[in-house]
Amino acid sequence: MWQLSTKGRYGLRLMFQLALKYGQGPVFLKDIAQAENLTIKYLEHIVPLLKAAKLIRSVRGPHGGYQLTKDPGDITLKIILKNLEGDIAPVDCVSLPAVCTRSNTCTARNVWCVLEENISNTLQRITLNDMVDMYNKKKGGIDKKQ
């Protein structure tokens, strides 16, 4: 089964927490770890990737921590996962046709390309702001889906 790595899943949770606190100042990594039940050590491995992608910044000092570099409505899940996971294609031949001699004639590859396009389009449509809205609906008891 194709799955996101722990890095992608945890990184998205880290970004969600920063979106949830957007506009309230920097957030300590320990607070994110506690809210998401994650280890600080693992989050410390993800932070440099998100900083390099210019998605988050660190603020020094006693009231320091991390914050988003732009509005949560401007950060898509696709850009986050692309920077944490790399290519989101379900199989190598989708983005690297040269790895398979059958790429030009393989019907299964066509299916994988459609799947990758749908995943990519969905991740491009969903922003961190959308995740915050989903959370607020669940928290308010409006969203009954589990």
What features would you describe in this structure?
By secondary structure, this protein is mainly α. It has a single domain, classed as Winged helix-like DNA-binding domain superfamily/Winged helix DNA-binding domain (Arc Repressor Mutant, subunit A, Orthogonal Bundle). The protein contains seven helices and two strands; from the N terminus they run αααββαααα. Strands 1-2 form a two-stranded antiparallel sheet. Helix 1 (about 5-20) crosses helix 2, helix 1 (about 5-20) packs across helix 3 and helix 1 (about 5-20) packs across helix 7 (about 130-140). The two termini are about 20 Å apart. The mean pLDDT is about 90.
Annotation keywords:
mainly alpha; 2 strands; 5% strand; 146 residues; single chain; two-stranded antiparallel sheet; Arc Repressor Mutant, subunit A
What does the secondary structure layout of this molecule look like, with pairings?
Blueprint: H1 6-20, H2 29-36, H3 40-52, E1 56-59, E2 65-68, H4 77-85, H5 92-95, H6 107-125, H7 128-139
Antiparallel strand pairs: 1-2
N- to C-terminal separation?
21 Å
Strand line-up of the largest beta sheet: 1-2
Beta content: 5-15%
Query: The CATH topology is what?
Result: Arc Repressor Mutant, subunit A
Q: Give me the count of strands.
A: 2
What kind of oligomer do you see? Answer: single chain
CATH top level assignment:
Mainly Alpha
Order of helices and strands: HHHEEHHHH
Mean pLDDT equals 92
CATH superfamily: Winged helix-like DNA-binding domain superfamily/Winged helix DNA-binding domain
What is the CA-based Rg, rounded?
18 Å
